Amino acid sequence: MQEKGIRWRALKAAFPNTIPIFAGFCFLGMAYGIYMNVSGFSFWYPMLMSMTIFGGSLEFVAVSMLLGAFAPLQTLLVTLMVQARHLFYGIAMLDRFKGLGWKRIYLIFGMCDETFSINYSAKIPEGVDRGWFMFFVTLLNQMYWVLGATLGGILGSYLKFDTEGLDFVMTAMFIVIFLDQWLKEKKHYTALIGLLVSVVCLLGFGADSFMIPTMIGVLCFLTLFRKPIEKAGGFS
Amino acid sequence: MTILQQVITITICVLGTMATRFLPFLIFREGQPTPKYIQYLGKALPAAIFGMLVVYCLRNVTIFSGSHGLPELLAIIVTIGLHLWKRQMLLSIAGGTLCYMLLVQCLF
Known about the structure:
The complex is a heterodimer of chains A (236) and B (108).
Chain A: H1 3-17, H2 19-38, H3 44-52, H4 56-67, H5 72-83, H6 86-93, H7 102-109, H8 113-121, H9 130-155, H10 168-184, H11 189-205, H12 211-224, H13 226-232
Helix pairs in contact in A: 1-9, 2-3, 2-4, 2-9, 2-10, 3-9, 4-5, 7-9, 8-9, 8-10, 11-12
Chain B: H1 3-27, H2 36-57, H3 70-86, H4 89-107
Helix pairs in contact in B: 3-4
């Protein structure tokens, strides 16, 4: 098959998987752009930041850091704490990104929560190139986010929102992906470890700082119970 | 903050983010076999990650005040119900989200 045909098929297969992200990212991206606009920044800021950082929660935090005093070390620590969960995505994708050449660099660059979740869990149809499929999922998602952020930054406070609650689209997507994983597994050890450790850490450390303790907890449990978990197998 | 300080702050955010995304790939190089323990983590982690992400999305829900997390709970039940029934990802997500929007806009 010709290179062009391969890309077109991959794009057509990738797009339907990104529709929930389209809704979620346009909405959240706009909310972020508006937030920057009313905080006194020109639309260049949300546009360039959404292109280069491409990680929703940190970009919201970055607005308050830009409004505060210049504190590079604190900025770095906050960034690493907010973004640490990406380490897990990388470990899960080590083998799947192998042999993809230059596309691999972009796939790693654009690996936000949503993109990782789709690229990890989507069933890629037969005859569709895996590398191009994941490439287009990543590219489309990033385009939605930059589009939303830029529009929000330009239109700012002129936009009136009666879309309260639309942000639930991201929660619903993660629930469906979680459920799909759950239905595919024979044993649910790791899913339960993820859920329970996060809930316990959320209650103990609070919403702003529970992710690092959660990650450490998950790693400890997965390491301690490696034997029974591997024996149960059935990873999807 | 001066423009330069803003640029530095944003650059630190970018570099910090990229460090967390690229680090596993820099440590475990493409040409070399991945250690068994890391291979195991790569397989065992995703189910735990998706559980973590669900909780992460719901982290600001207040159970003891406000609407007591009821709209979230109901919308989650609708999402799961739809998915178990039809197994259509987009339908389950759209149904759950619409349900949530109706609840927070009209009821709570």
